[in-house]
Design a protein that fits this description.
Helix content: under 10%
Distance between the termini: 51 Å
Structural class: mainly beta
Mean pLDDT: 78
CATH topology of the domain at 337-486: Jelly Rolls
Order of helices and strands: HEEEEEEEEEEEEHEEEEEEEEEEEE
Number of strands: 24
Radius of gyration: 33 Å
Strand order of the largest sheet: 17-19-23-21
């Protein structure tokens, strides 16, 4: 939702000065990043003091008080770290970070007026177009948009094939010296309702690029970056790469000299007029031979092609050259068992047998989960009941610190109870004898200190959801779970079998 309370508080503040100070209009904010105004701190009763005026003893466009409006949004603390709106004299605390949170004091953008303190305007999904501080993000190094620090940043490619972070300029077209605002393709918003919460109509996307689409200047932010370069060789134009030496402030070491084998670098190495026109296999041979996949050349970079069926490139911390070495179980290819509805049926267990079910698998991404379903059978044993469901991790060994499971007892995909979530071991059991109205064995007598009676038969389907424990570093280790339905005659009430439920409506 838009920050209406903040706007109302600002209007209320403006009304305090009443007739002596005209109320600010959004079309002419007169904002400044200097809350002290002029040297005399303009007195509203001692001069004209209008928007951007010269009231009092020299205040220019600001009343001189802490958080004063000067005819627009208060800017006290603009760019300062904050946690909530109340931390800011601007009454607006915004997370401007893209991949890493960075909450700072901001102000709304206003048509026709610059942002305070050298800031610039970008779009925020909750606050709409917002002035944020210049954090030096322009021309930072990147490979993808997510590498750039601020909301609205793009990772663009210059005419020389080097990538750089470009800040947003869609609102007002404003960029620094040596840069120009250029239209950009639209990107899918993080929030599919972007613009809706803020009540703001989105402007066509645009970003600040170096004039002429050249490379950013070679400085500390670009140190070590490689870009395309060229030389003349026998009437041919040969291309290679050169690297930014920030200490010298120059691009050095151009590798272009004479026709060379084409490699994936965005340059025309073989001097035939077309860059990167070799085969992916040849151009990326220097990257290695990745398992269960191959390299493809994409915009001057060797990237992994999709893994072969049944394999994943996980964990993501592995070098690209390793490839896809994490095996995906047959039932999970394409995420087939990532939901309860797609649970893999693995069979059944009965208290009439000592046989066990074994379930094994791997979680092949940071967000992967595996769902399984199995049936349980409670046989009529006459004088007792050994129906005792036991579910335990038996791998990895010697200790499982990575995986947990949730248990749903029943034939519907309900939300598991808190006592049946994030487990490494589960027990549900009954004991004793009981006789129904027709003389049939229907259940068990006292099975706990509280005297609960659980009428049978108790056979039920089970759903099992395997996930990774929050906060742990993911691996491609295999997990293994063992499931049995015939345990000892003693219920283990220290685990998840209490409290149990009367599943047939009989009194307990």
């Amino acid at each position: 939702m838009p920050r209406l309370p903040s706007v109302l508080s600002l209007v209320s503040g403006a009304l305090v000065v009443g007739l002596f100070w005209p109320l600010a209009c959004a079309s002419d904010p007169g904002v400044t990043d200097d809350p002290s105004g002029g040297s005399g701190g303009g007195d509203a009763s001692a001069g004209s003091g209008g928007i951007g005026g010269t009231g009092g003893t020299g205040g220019t466009g600001n009343t001189g008080n802490s958080g004063g409006t000067g005819g627009g949004w208060p800017t006290t603390g603009f760019g300062s770290p904050c946690s909530v709106d109340e931390d800011c004299g601007t009454r607006q605390c915004t997370d401007i970070g893209k991949s890493t949170s960075n909450r700072v004091c901001t102000v709304p953008c206003v048509e026709g007026s610059p942002c305070p303190g050298g800031g610039y305007c970008t779009f925020h999904e909750e606050d709409g177009y917002t002035c944020i501080p210049d954090t030096g993000n322009q021309c930072g190094q990147c490979s993808v948009d997510a590498d750039c620090p601020n909301i609205g940043d793009r990772c663009l490619i210059s005419a020389n094939n080097d990538r750089y972070c470009a800040r947003d300029c869609a609102f007002d077209g404003a960029c620094g010296v040596g840069f120009e605002c250029k239209p950009q393709p639209a990107v899918e918003p993080t929030d599919p309702d972007a613009g809706g919460d803020s009540g703001t109509e989105l402007k066509p996307p645009a970003a600040c690029v170096p004039e002429g689409n050249e490379s950013c200047a070679c400085d500390a932010k670009r140190d070590g970056v490689a870009r395309r370069c060229s030389t003349q060789s026998g009437g041919l134009t040969c291309e290679g790469t050169e690297t930014c030496n920030a200490a010298a402030g120059t691009w050095e070491g151009c590798t272009a000299s004479s026709p060379q084998p084409e490699i994936c670098d965005g340059a025309d190495n073989d001097c035939n007029g077309t860059p990167d026109d070799g085969t992916d296999l040849d151009m990326c041979a220097h990257e290695g031979d990745p398992a269960n996949t191959s390299f493809v050349c994409n915009l001057g970079q060797c990237e992994l092609a999709p893994c072969n069926d049944g394999w994943a490139a996980y964990p993501s911390s592995l070098p690209k050259s390793v490839g896809c070495t994490c095996r995906v179980e047959a039932g999970d290819i394409g995420g087939a068992n990532d939901t309860c509805a797609g649970a893999t049926h693995v069979g059944s267990v009965s208290d009439g047998s000592l046989n066990a079910l074994t379930v094994s698998g791997r979680l092949t991404s940071d967000t992967d989960v595996d769902w399984y379903k199995f049936d349980t059978v409670d046989t009529d044993e006459g004088t007792t009941n050994s129906y005792h469901i036991q579910i335990d991790f038996t791998a990895p060994v010697p200790a499982n610190n990575e995986f947990v499971f949730d248990v749903i007892r029943g034939d519907s995909c309900d939300t598991p109870a808190a006592s049946h979530s994030s487990l490494t071991s589960y027990t549900w059991c009954v004991d004793g004898t009981g006789t129904g109205p027709g003389g049939e064995t229907i259940g068990e007598q006292v099975c706990s200190a509280q005297g609960d009676r659980h009428c049978g038969p108790h056979g039920r389907p089970y759903y099992l959801r395997v996930s990774r424990r929050p906060g742990v570093t993911g691996t491609c280790d295999e997990y293994r779970i063992t499931i049995t339905a015939r345990g000892s005659f003693n219920c283990d009430f220290t685990k998840a079998c209490a409290p149990q439920v009367d599943e047939t409506g009989q009194s307990r």
